[in-house]
Design goal:
Helix content is about 40%, strand content about 20%. By secondary structure, the protein is of the alpha/beta class. α4 crosses α6 (about 125-140), α6 runs parallel beside α7 (about 155-170) and α8 crosses α9. The longest helix has 15 residues, at about 125-140.
């Protein structure tokens, strides 16, 4: 449950939500995605309460990449086109190249026409996520939501994706739940959550200098990975 949360993201900014497990990060993301509505307060997009906007219209402006990506039985190309069904083959390939998925796709038996099993079980987790990011880029959403999107990726796939994220985030509003995302360091705004509340806000260097929860989380998690 969230308590007295007030959070603002300017158009075109990348904001990160960080905090320990159970802090309320995924709840915040679910509310923004309108999987369910707030019972108190409001969520505004361009000064409009999202409850007053037709859900289909609102969702069409969102790109959502989850820790466990949604893939369905069908070809790789069909899965990529899920958010933009009218996209041409050249657009699909271009998006895959930007994200770094093109190389592994072309090595599949039938390339973009390779049939995926339910939930993409014939792909590695890293490959599934790269497909999910390709889909998000092709859909060209105004708002991009990344919920622990690289948490289960292997180190190679994550490295490939880091460069793609710069293109994916360029010029669009993004909210990122950070786990291993290096983009947290460059986020325009970081909100640190604990027990359903935001307890710290600022940029990476400022939050480190304060020596609070963010600094402790960074030392335990991100610095440890950097040394590894």
């Amino acid at each position: 449950m969230l308590h007295n949360v007030s959070f603002e993201v300017a158009a075109g900014e990348t904001a990160a939500l960080v905090g320990p497990t159970g802090a309320g990060k995924s709840t915040m993301m679910s509310l923004i995605a309108r999987f369910y509505d707030v019972t108190g307060g409001r969520i505004l997009v361009d000064r409009h309460d999202i409850r007053d906007v037709e859900q289909i219209s609102y969702r069409s402006q969102l790109g959502l990449v989850l820790q466990d990506p949604f893939l369905f039985s069908g070809t790789i190309a069909e899965n990529i086109r899920y958010g933009n069904p009218t996209a041409g083959d050249d657009e699909v390939v271009k998006a895959a190249k930007v994200v770094g998925a093109h190389d592994f796709i072309t090595k599949m038996e039938k390339g973009y026409e390779t049939q995926l099993q339910e939930r993409g079980q014939n792909l590695s987790m890293g490959q599934r996520q790269l497909i999910s990011f390709t889909r998000a880029l092709l859909a060209d959403p105004a708002i991009l939501l990344l919920d622990e999107a690289t948490a289960n990726m292997d180190s190679y796939s994550e490295q490939v994706l880091q460069e793609a994220l710069k293109e994916l985030l360029k010029g669009r509003t993004a909210i990122v739940i950070a786990h291993r995302l290096s983009t947290i360091k460059n986020a325009d705004h970081i909100a640190v959550m604990e027990n359903g509340s935001i307890i710290e806000e600022g940029k990476h260097d400022d939050l480190l200098a304060r020596g609070g929860l963010y600094a402790r989380l960074y030392e335990m998690t991100y610095a440890g990975m950097a040394r590894g």
